[in-house]
Structures are given as C-alpha cells and as structure tokens.
Amino acid sequence: MSIEFFPTDVDGRKVRVFQLSDDFLNPYKTITPNWGPVGYITYKRTYARTLEDGTSEEWWQTCRRVVEGTFNVQKIHAKRLGTPWEEPKAQKSAQDMYDRMFNFKFLPPGRGIWTMGTDLVYEKGSACLNNCGFVSTEHINIDFAGPFTFLMDMSMLGVGIGGDTKGAGKAKIQIPRYTDEPYVVADSREGWVDLIKTVLNSFVGKGSYPKTIDYSKVRPFGAPIRGFGGVASGPDPLDDIVQRITALLMPNEETGSTYRINSTKIVEIFNLIGRCVVAGNVRRTAEIMFGAPEDEEFAELKNSEQLDAWYAEQANFEKGTDEWQALQDKIDEHPLRTHRWASNNSIFAKVGMDYSKASERICDNGEPGLVWLDAMQKYGRLADPPNWKDKRAMGSNPCSEQTLESWELCCLVETFPAHHDSLEDYKNTLKAAYLYAKTVTLIPTHDPRSNAVIMRNRRIGCSMSGIIQAINKLGRSEFYKWCDEGYAHVQHLDEIYSSWLGIPLSIKTTSVKPSGTVSLLCGATPGIHYPHSEYYIRRITFQKGSPLLDACRQAGYKVEESVYGQKGNSYVVEFPVHETNFKKSKDDITIWEQFANAAALQKWWADNQVSITVTFRKEEADDVQTCIEVYQDQLKSISLLPLSEHGYAQAPYETITQEQFEDMTSNLLPLSLTVDAHDTDDKFCSGETCTISLD
To answer: Is 52 a catalytic residue?
Structure first.
C-alpha cells in the first residue's frame, strides 16, 4: 500500500515538490569529501544507490536525495495543514543542511542515507527511516500474536526492536484447531507476517492452524528484492520458523493439554523470528529482550555450560570421526546456536537491588545488560529535576539509547562535535540534525499503533559520535559545556519548529547511540567508545563478484579470500588506519573511566539514554559489581563485555605499528568507484554488540 501522506500526480506517481538549485549543487560535484580511512568504500558498499544509467550515486547526489526528501516532507506537511511555506527561507535552510551533511558535521542514520527521498518511503511510510522500536508483551492475553508479528514486520523493514517478558503467565496455550483449507502465502512482507500471525493465534484458540501451507507464490531463491536490495531466500526460512514455533508451543505430556506461556517461550518466539529475518535475506537483525531480575529462567537462557562441555569433549576426537560428528550435531541444534543468539538479554534493574548474580553472569559472558526503567520514566537529563514526561515508557531499543513506549519507533541522527571549531558552528549543525529527525516524525508508518505513539511523543534522538575525539580536541570541561549549551539549544529549536509545524514538542530529544558504519564514513570513533588503537588494520568483507573488489586490488589494497563461510563466496580487504586526536585506545582505559564517561553524558547531554558497552579486563572483574553499585543512580542503562584474546584469523580490527602503517600506505592509489556496487545494507541497530550478521 502507499502512504496517504504523500500526494499523487495524475499518473499515480508521488509528488516531489522541493528541489535544490543546480547553481547551488554544481560546486559540490567536483569536491572530494573528507572521507574517513574506509569512508568511501563503506559508502559505496552500503549507501550509494543505483542510478538509471547503471552507475551508483556519488556523495553529492546522495546528499541531494536526502535533503530534498527531507524538505519535500516538510513542504507537503505545510501544504496539507494550509500553513505558510517560505520557499527562500526553506532553500537557505536546506542548503545549510546539505553543506553540513556533505562535510560530515552531521549525518542521518544509515537507513536515512539509504532510503530518504526514495519511492520506498513514499510507498511504505516512515518505518524504514526509523532506527529502532519497542513492543511489550504485557497484553498478550488480549492480542497474543500482536507483539511477535510487530517484531517480524518491523524487522523486515530494518527496524531494531526491543521486547519484554511481561506477558509471562498471561496467555493460555492449547492444542490448535485444524483446517483443511490450504493457506496460500502471499509473496510480500505482509504475507510472511500474516502466516506467522495465523499460526501463533491458533495456539490460543483464535482461528485455525492450516494443515497445508502453500508457498508456491513466494519468489524463489535468488530473485531480486526491491527497496532494500539483495536477493530472495525462497520460502525455506518461513517454513522453518513455522515448524519451530509449532514444536515450541505444541502442548505435550510435560506441559499438559493447556499451559500458561512462560518467559522462556516468549523470548524463544522473538529469537526464532530474528533467525527467520536473517535467513530471509534481510541479513541482519537487532533484538533486545528485557526480563525481571528475579526471573532465573530468563537469566539462564544464555547459559553456555552444556555447549562448552560438548566443545571440550569434541576436542578429544579427530574432526570428521563419528564421535566428533555426533557432538557437532548436538552443538548445531543447541538453542544458543540455532536462535538464542538473536537477542541481547537485559534486566529491569532497581536502584539498591542485589547485583551479585547479575555481575557474575556479566563476567562470564557479558549478559545481562541493565536498564533502570524508573529513571527512564522519571528523568530527562540527570542534570535536571524529575519531570515524569516518560511515565508511559516500558522499555528501550536494542542498543538502549532510547526510552520507548510499547509500539513506539524512533529516528536517530548523528552529530560530530570534533568536526567543529566553535560552539556556535556546532549549534548550527544541531539545527540541521534536529530538523532531519523531527521531519521523520511527520511521516506516518503503515502501523496505526505506532502512529498513535509517535505522533503524541515526537521523540527523536540527536546523538554524538567521535565523543572521545571531541574530548581530546576540546578538553573535558569545554566538551561538557558544549553538551550542556547544545542541549539547551535543541530545546530552543524544538519550541520554534514544533510551533511552526503545528505538532507537539518532542518528549525527549537527545541520546548517545553506539554508531557503526555511519561513523566510518567520516572517520569518527563510534559514539562514546574509544578507538581500537592509534594505528590498525580495518578488515571489511565483500561478496564474490563485487566490483569493489577489483577497485581495491587496482588501488593496491591487500585482498584475500575469507576463511569463513563457503569457500570462494567472500573476500576480505585490509585498510590501514591512523586515528586522529589520539590519546588512549580501548585497551588503555579502565572500567571506572568508561562508567564515568557514560554518567557525564547522561548528566549533560542525553535525556534519552547513553548507549555504551563497557569493556573490562579479567583483572577488573571484581570491580564490575562495585562500579554498578556506585553509578546505578547516575545511569539509565549499561552493558558490559569482558575483553578476551580472540586469536581468530582475519579479525575486523588488528593493531599495527606506525612503520607498518606507512609501509602499507606508501604505494596506495585513489579508489575508483563509479559502477553500481551496493554490496550490503545498513545494520538495523548500529552497534556491533546489538546486531547479528551472517556476513
């Protein structure tokens, strides 16, 4: 279906009513952007769309599409409301946004770089522009399938989704009624989602379970996918999830003919959907599941003791022997291998609770994460008094930088304070970033439940990346001043533009997202995290046949076959990197410094949350519980990860010396990337700790 927000012309095409002038754009066509060390290749691999002549966009064209798409939405909104639209003023504002995006002072989220201004937005609405969302299972006794199908629907559009286990004990599962009428699956996202809805609801007495499911209309493996790109997986992943959900929910001798759903089965359904979305060739999924701290069943979902024991036993046998293979078969079917990898699991912590068990598990495998929902509901920035604006909040997104209600989606946008030399210039960048994010809230999604929350809250997330670079450049005190005055400026902007647009003030406006490929474009460190080292190799995987591989070879970069996956299907390119404004690497900082950084940004900048994965060394494990207890009332969320010597081949990051860097770069030529080379889509959620990739 097409979203009614956008008017149509006589030929049925969506109207585009705003354009930047060629006179303004012409100078940018010959300017080389200030790419980061792997920025241009990342852009061509991930964000450059195919043009009508078969070539792919250059950066000036992408910026044009995004900025024109943004102001097209604003202009249509003004026309629909019958409010004033001043074209010269809009042109000036759009030109400023364009220049700041082109020069990497701010960037929309990766999904915005890829889809803003395209037909996908006009046809499907704003879901594909939103980074993240949350849905609660609290009312699954009323709408059992609702939260699960919301997850599937939004995940297939690229939205990272959080969920909870509050529905545990509320829905009675029973043996379904069956129907002989074949169920014909439509070849669409909606068709896949509707089948899962039918199957799930049959287990609570709503409708019937089809004995025959006809997948003949689902496009075969390898067929092209419009919109997000890529190729189809065929119906196998959908059939697989139907079989797995059926086996999971079907009453048996152990459960009896009926039983109440528990937290484990809720999480399992979420995770199986994540497995299906990945296998269904959207390729990545991002999920987080929240449980109660006292729920031991939930806490044990990531327990790997049995898996570790099988690995240890398998080491006693030669690979390929019957004994080795029998253990491998068990390993392959362990839930942690089949589907439980699909979510990060966190608990709703309470200030003053006993953190000992959670800390022990964190030291073992990095989970659970912790969120303090009371603080999320009660506070904006922690420098400010309680306001209870978010009293309806129920959870967060997979990277935990956004406070969210059930069914709510949110758009995040990144600013790069280290790319500015004055606070005034940074404030002007905040205007461009704010306007992009606020504009996304004007476009309805295809889901009325989401629209109801989005339109009431108008929540956005103006984020920062390169935070450590900015601290190193400005000094800590000056950087915190930029945070404080920048936040006040965003509130001022919200008053002005919400009034002009005729919509509510945003319930919250700022956050710190972990970032990912977006920060690679301009060479910024991701979010609040430290660089890997001053000099390092960044390895990026490309699919066999990608034109980017030949371009890398011709430019002199080292290319070798990937040691992972099917032989010959993918290749790894090594890019040497030198970090600017470098003082410390992630191996040089203590757990305490990382907690302090998160608390400072939660105090002075983020009225939503600060997403951070605190890494700690083995000798710091005893400090984990103490750090949590000291900072529990200064944070809204935190996740931790023990550092380990991975020792695996072709690691994404590898520290090198200055001499090695200079040797690797001495004979490199400029990359020539003009043909269509889109190789992969943006992660749904940006942090490496909250996305699962099959690459």
So the answer is: no
